[in-house]
Amino acid sequence: MDKENEILKELEEISPTLCQMQKVNVFEVPENYFEELTEKLTLFTLLNVNENSAFIPEKNMTLSEMRDIPEGYFNSLSDRILSKIKNSEAQNEEEELINSFPVLYSLKGKNVFSIPQNYFQDLGSIILNKINNKQEAKVVSIQSKWWKYAAAAVVTGVIAVSSLIILNDHSKVTANTTASVTSAKIPDYIQSSFKYKTPEQVDEGIASLSDDEIIRYLEKHGSIIDNDLLTKGVDVKELPSTNDYLTDENTLNDYLQKIDAKNANQNTP
Amino acid sequence: MNLPQNDQELLESFKDPATKEQAFTGIIKKYQEKLYWHVRRMVVDHEDANDVLQNMFIKVWKGLENFREDSQLYTWLYRIATNESLTFLTQQKKRSTSSLSDDENGLSNKLKSDTHFDANKLEWKLQLGIQSLPEKQRLVFNLRYYDEMPYEQMSKVLETSEGALKASYHHAAKKIEDFILNH
């Protein structure tokens, strides 16, 4: 069944009278109305969008008469329309704010945040420096990450192990052993490790070391002990990401404590 | 040599190794303030905003060669700044050990720790109200209220329909006004 028959059948079921009535359009339109409608509408709309335009076509004005408008009018029309649309959108937004949220409107433009002086003047060169430095340092980025972990792990290990040895030895010292005898037998660097008795103190000890001190230490002792220390208890998959390490100073401490705990568990019989 | 101000010219200059850095500086100079304030309003703290902005421009440097010029540079920069700000806030949230309430990033506390903070002043209440919003609503509110960004453009930055953005802005403004009146 085609669409027309279907509609007729539907209407017949609803109202046989209506179905039998002839379809007649009682409304009339002017001659040639549809031929010119699109053009007229377009022109009329565009002309009225321009707020400066007082041009209103007469009821029976022909298209050729409507075209009798200032020279060059259409050259800048699109810009004027866009500007009008933008203005009206901005106006609506402002009106909405005034009418719906007067408190927010009254606070617009008040800035509570402060920034360092000349911040924006220097920003461009700071960023370019960073970009150029990054490009130069690209080749060693993986090694430098390992170096940081290695240096910290070596120093932590040495301090912690030294502290444990000394503490154990110290507890075995008999009551009549004098402090002078003890200090005479023990080298300076081990004596200095007496102060590292808690994890917090060890952390402070690491923090107090300069890069130069770590480098000098590694140059002297690193080759002997680093392989052992680095391979023991270090799982590459568990290493914090570079970002975490660089942006949070606690990340390395947390990680090293985890390694210490893991090693302690492994050493427990 | 005069620095071109037009985006198209800046992008062309960026392609030429001889003028690449100069063009990039031009892009930074042209957009830095708008982008800085966009980021700052999201992350609150200046140092955080500075980090996010610098990282963002470093990514722009890397990505600009592949930038498709059929989209607007301004919109693209806003999208990167927005993504970087949200990534920063997510990382911060992960690291946070404090109990998380409705202000999950502790941004209200950052505001309160500002030396100029005055709980009785409406402009500070407004900031507290903004920080109490969910991230997406906060973004929409800031882009519309401060940056006066048309919904059409915002739709490209946030990849959300204009209708949803209008609704989101309306909800946000209502919530903030209620917050100001009730606190």
Taking pLDDT < 50 over at least 5 consecutive residues as the criterion, the unreliable ranges of chain A are 48-54, 139-145, 173-181
Which chains have the largest interface?
A-B, 32 and 38 residues
Q: What is the SS-derived class of chain B? A: mainly alpha
Query: Shape of chain B from CA axes?
Result: globular
Count, helices of chain B: 9
Task: State Rg of chain B.
Answer: 18 Å
Overview of the structural elements:
The complex is a heterodimer of chains A (269) and B (183). Chain A has 269 residues and is mostly helical. Chain A is 69% helix and 0% strand. Chain A has helices at 3-14, 16-20, 33-49, 63-66, 77-100, 102-107, 119-137, 141-172, 179-185, 188-191, 199-208, 211-231, 242-247, 250-267. Chain B is built from 9 helices and no strands. The longest helix of chain B is centred in the first third of the chain and has 24 residues, at 20-43. The chains are: A mainly alpha (269), B mainly alpha (183).
Quick summary of this structure?
The complex is a heterodimer of chains A (269) and B (183). Chain A is mainly α. Helices cover 69% and strands 0% of the residues of chain A.
Key attributes of the depicted protein:
heterodimer; A: about 270 residues; mainly alpha; about 70% helix; B: about 180 residues
Secondary-structure blueprint:
The complex is a heterodimer of chains A (269) and B (183).
Chain A: H1 3-14, H2 16-20, H3 33-49, H4 63-66, H5 77-100, H6 102-107, H7 119-137, H8 141-172, H9 179-185, H10 188-191, H11 199-208, H12 211-231, H13 242-247, H14 250-267
Helix pairs in contact in A: 8-11, 8-12
Chain B: H1 7-15, H2 20-43, H3 46-63, H4 73-95, H5 107-112, H6 122-131, H7 135-145, H8 151-158, H9 162-182
Helix pairs in contact in B: 1-2, 2-3, 2-4, 3-4, 4-8, 6-9, 7-9
